[in-house]
Amino acid sequence: MNTFRLSPLFVAIGAALALPAQAQSLIELYQSARSFDASYQSAKSQFDATLAKAEQAKSAILPTANLALGLSRSTQEVVPDLGPSSNRSFGTQSATVSASQPLYRPANWASYQQGLKQLDLAQAQLQSADQDLIVRVGQGYFDVLAAQDSLTFVKAQKTAVAEQLASAKRNFEVGTSTITDTREAQARYDLVIAQEIAAENDLRVKKIALDQLVGKSNAQPLALALPLKLPALQALDVKVWVQQSETAHPAIGQSQIALDVAQLETKKAQAGHKPTLDLSASYSAMNNLEGSSSAGVGSRVNAGSIGLSFNLPLFAGFATQNRIKETIALEEKARNDLEGAKRAVAQGTRTAFFGVLSGQGQVAAFEAAEASSQSALDANKLGYQVGVRINIDVLNSQSQLFDTKAKLAKARYDVLLGGLKLRQANGTLKADDLQSVNALLLAK
């Protein structure tokens, strides 16, 4: 009797354990991936290292200072020709402070300017890594939703085919249909079972990939809210997107920085023919404790100096001339790389743009096909009931309807992901762009 009284408690606990984890939005999973994804964290560490490296370039134009301390102890033994020998010990203490300031060093200033370019390079590299992370999270997010939809449609098709199989068996038993209808329905049912197994495995694999990306053990993406109206492109002219890429794309920015650095490297090479001028100063103090090897009494010596150091290169075995030729060639290479990057980005932007337009057209076509497939299925079911259609007609209509539903869902996800990839292609993708996609998801 007590067992039956406790059973509601066990049922409640079992129901609580069976509840799915709270679903996460696209923005939540992106934020989680930012703190977990190894590729992004690696790029962020590289960004920090590049910033530190850029600061190192300042040392070429800033003064340097050094402090040197010395302490020694000596023992001197004097052995005369006649008489006993004598030993004497004395010590020396020294301290020197020196400083130097470059006054005119063109190569050092070029190195400093190259260091400043490293700041821009670090920013462009991190921006590229962030855009890549946004697209990868979006890809994983919609892959899971598409796999879930496919599994849902396969299960629905299995239910419909099972009902058709049962109907065929009943009609055969009463003699209103042949065994062929039953066998066709059974074959279609077995095929759907195989499709269900494949869909379950595909969903499992897609979830594992998303979990690994965002660092969660059971990520649950929010589904799209239906009916869905896909957002239109902000600009319907591909030239606008290409023009934005010329100033916004991180790959073009990195190539431009590489060209600037190459030009500064040429200036550094040309500085090999120019003079250098440095200002230097030093102050030293030396204590001779208990005398020295030449004096028997202790002494202290203080010395200070300040001066200019001028150096003019005259001949370096043609090394400077050949170095200039090398840097000029590398500068031309960087200029060609920049042009190649611009062309590649423009081509990628056009491809992504027309891909989104094509996807939007496919969504509209699949929506029309879904309505037509539903009407065809209803007509075939009615025709089967009145005897003007056979069982295979109904089964084919069911397969066509669920296949169209799956393709429609996948096309919607491809358009939304294509919008993110289009912004990545022209370099304008930011985390804020996820807001428009997030607004299309079901509310928690």
Describe the 3D structure.
The chain has 444 residues and is of the alpha+beta class. The protein has 2 domains: 24-61 and 106-274 and 319-438, Outer membrane efflux proteins (OEP) (Up-down Bundle), CATH 1.20.1600; 64-79 and 86-104 and 277-312, Outer membrane efflux proteins (OEP). Helix content is 65%, strand content 14%. The protein contains 10 helices and 4 strands, in the order αααββααααββααα. Strands 1-2-3-4 form a 4-stranded antiparallel sheet, with no helix packed on it. The longest helix is centred in the first third of the chain and has 69 residues, at 106-174. It is elongated.
List keywords for this structure.
444 residues; alpha+beta; Outer membrane efflux proteins (OEP); 2 domains; four-stranded antiparallel sheet; 10 helices
